Structure formats: structure tokens, C-alpha cells
Predict the 3D structure of the following.
Amino acid sequence: MCRMIAKVSPEASAIIEEMLLCPTSLSYLSQNGKQPSAPWLRGKHNDGCGLAFLNQGNIEIHKRDKATAWDESYQSIVKKANSQLFIAHNRLASKGLNSSQEGAHPFYYKPNETPYAFSHNGSIASYHNEAVAKEISDSQIFFQHLIDEKEKNQDRSFSSIVSDIAGSKSYDSLCGLLMSPDTLYAWRIYNESNPDKQEIYEAYYTLYLSMRKGSIVIASECLDTGSWLLLPNNTFISIRLCKNSLQIDYTALTF
């Protein structure tokens, strides 16, 4: 379980404010994020961290494990990064999974022509045993299934593929941030089948959206006291980079 953010801008911009300077920045949330079993409490999400961003059309990724999370070298990269598209993540590893640098998010996958980076917040029981056996994370398996399915059928939308996974797998949350060189995809999906868990899931597995200084920011928690919109459960958003503008598409998922 995790805290994560994304930022998309028509022109290249910095991410230092959202990562380090906001009152509830991602750095702050690494030590003070809402807790998955008790969202009214705050605590650490420091089993690793990572940042992905566009650099001259390629996706550049920097990750740290638990021992080096938010170290000076990582913060130096954060301060210098300048891009149209970012995703970043603090990890709270699911029980039984390692907290190595390889297990930190975002993950990178380029099976063919298009590279992708991905961050996830939640635990997917259907992938847990496979993840333990392969010594990777359930999030990584989710990511690979998602992209492999897209590669099989380029005409399928990511929202359709995510809906199929949501309708066929056991999970507490599938909340995710996916980026390609020209698009950010973000979705909020938590499992509503258990009434005893719904209030907790609604409070913890959140994604908020804010339009600020010409950019769109999506975050697990509001980063400041500005205007933030809580995305409803089962929401899928794509934000495409266009010349001097952003194209936003919204889908209410059914499965």
C-alpha cells in the first residue's frame, strides 16, 4: 500500500513543489501518510520510493530501497527534474513482499515500441502467490498483464483492460498511475464487496485531482489547502499531451 502523485503540464515544469515543498508533499507523506488499516492515523510509507518522468521522449526512472529512500541523491534529482509528465511513489510493502530497490515503484516495461512506467496503490490477492514465488511484487505482475494485453490488441483501451482485471481478480485496490511518452492514465478502483471494509477503503484508497498553474496534479492525498477534487470510485482518466494543451478523457468504469 502506498502514496503516489502524478503531474502533467503542456510545457515542461518542475516537480519540486509537489515532491518536497507542499505542506503534504510526497516527502512528508513518506513519514506521515494515512495508514491502510486505520486512515485516521498517520505513519510511514518508506519501504522504497521512486520517480519517473519524460526526458527527450524517453522515460527516465530513479528508485531507492528502504535504506536509501529520500536520500540526498534522490532529492537532488527531484530538485533538478523538469518535464511535462511525472509519476512518483512512496511504498508500503504488502506482507511477505521484499522492500528492495527492484520492488520500488514506478516500474518500467517496454515489450515493443512503446515504453511505460507504472505505480500502484493496493494489494492484489490473485497475484500474491506468483509475486512471492518470483520475488517481485503483485503490482509488477498487474502492470505486465495490463501492458501485455494492450500489446495483443492495440485497439483495446486501457480502461477496458483495467475493467476486465477488476471484474475477474481478488484485490483490495487497483488504484494506479500509468504513463507512456504522451499520456498519463489514472484510475481509482477499490473493492466494494465487503461492507465492513468499505469505509476504510473509501478513506485510504483515494485519488485527488487539482488544476494548478497550468498543470494537472493527481495525488493520493491533497498536497495543500488548494482546490482538490476526490475522484469517485471506479473512475478512469486519461490526460494526453497535445501541442500547448492537455486532452482529458473521463470514463466511469463498469465490470
Remarks:
- The chain has a mean pLDDT of 94.
- The longest strand covers residues 2-14.
